[in-house]
Amino acid sequence: MSELTISTNQKPISNRRDNLVMLSRVANSLYWMSRYIERSENIARLLDVNLQLMLDFSDLNDQQLKDHWLPILCSAGDEETFFKLYDKADSETVTEFLTFREENPNSIISCLFSARENARQVRDQISLEMFETLNECYLFLKSKNAREVWQTGAHEFYEQIKKYSHLFQGLTGSTFTRNEGYEFINLGKFLERADKTTRILDIKYHILLPSVADVGGAIDTAQWQAILRSASALEAYRRFHVEDILPKKVAEFLIFSTTFPRSIMSCMRHLDEDLHRLSGKERREYKSDEERAFGKLLSDLNFLTIDEILNSGLHQFLEKVQATLDNLDDHIYQEYMYHPPVDFESEIFLQQQQMQQQ
Fold it and tell me: What is the DSSP letter of 126?
């Protein structure tokens, strides 16, 4: 019997509820621990790539800088919070906001602190190596050395964040028991990864519309290359497409690739497998309306073409994917992690009835 599986035979109702509540909390902590780590890595990669891109276009004016950094804030949904703290969006303010500001729940430091707290709550469920890696990362970010590293070389700082994430995920794959807890870790990772790939791609959606033929220029090409690098997809893309970086091909690769692990298709296939393992349903059978909507979208992806998506609107398609993933996230919480407040009088009455029937 796995750690997250319980038997309800010959146990008092109150004990069963306590166990279910405990297990739902474990599932919630594992799920969000994984999501926060994946989110911090994606933010680190996105900021690192865009800072390096600025070195190629160092003569941009304030408006051009705003046009470059504002979509990154919008893609994360943090624009309103940002302008409560800063007057303008540029390289320094946006990177600080998305890296160190604890007022921003989606900053790297907030995500990794939350990941470590969730790991602490399930310390007995994860391996020693997993917790030590997160704790080491936490202590690094709490130290003055973190800001010093960032100020003297942002690239080295973001590389360190990515290494912590890769080390943690590698240790998870090597040391975590294959049980329900592992499924929740995978759900958090792949749901977050799919969502972030849609947001990275959505940053440049307007350039693809209304006509791919309108796209061109050195800055445009460099920005599309940055999109690939933000998803760690440049080398993989080059293996499939040796010609120039074309917006249509970039979108097609990041949406449909079945072999690249950060594509939307790849992440959704992993999510589908984990959902079926948790629910115990047969393939193509789903437990809820949210899971069926997710399954329908995955089925559509198997038959859609990039031309059909571009003709109907890439931005609209990406918004649909994000909404489907948001609904799936709500369903996972309601199905596996939420328990209503205990009605003790009803619990006592049901327990008395059960005892009388024995």
Answer: S
Q: Which of 327, 18, 23, 288 is nearest to 179 (CA)?
A: 23
DSSP 8-state class, residue 124: T
Alpha carbon of residue 258 to chain centroid: 18
Q: How far apart are CA 249 and CA 205, in angstroms?
A: 13
CB distance 275 to 239 below 8 Å: no
For residue 284, the model assigns a pLDDT of: 80
Omega cis (within 30) before 12: no
Residue found by looking up tokens 């297990």 in the block: 23
Other Cβ atoms closer than 10 A to 282: 8
Percent of the chain beyond pLDDT 70? Answer: 81
pLDDT in tens, 205-225: 654 444 444 455 666 777 888
For position 165, what pLDDT does the model report?
97
What crossing angle do the helices spanning 247-256 and 180-202 adopt, rounded to 10°? 170
> Could you give the CA distance from residue 105 to residue 40 in angstroms, rounded to a whole number?
11
Task: Report how far apart, in Å, the C-alpha atoms of 74 and of each of 70, 77, 81, 308 are.
Answer: 6, 5, 11, 26
- Region 160-177 average pLDDT: 97
The dihedral over CA atoms of 184, 228, 106, 273, expressed in degrees to the nearest 10, equals -10
Neighbours of 88 (CB within 10 A): 14
Decide if 179 contacts 5 (C-beta within 8 A).
yes
Q: What six digits make up the tokens of 171?
A: 């240790």
One-letter amino acid identity for 92?
A: E
pLDDT, the chain, mean: 85
User: Residue 106 in contact with residue 98, Cβ under 8 Å?
Assistant: yes
Q: pLDDT tens digits, residue range 279-331?
A: 888 888 888 999 999 999 999 999 999 999 999 999 999 999 999 999 999 99
CA distance 318 to 323: 9
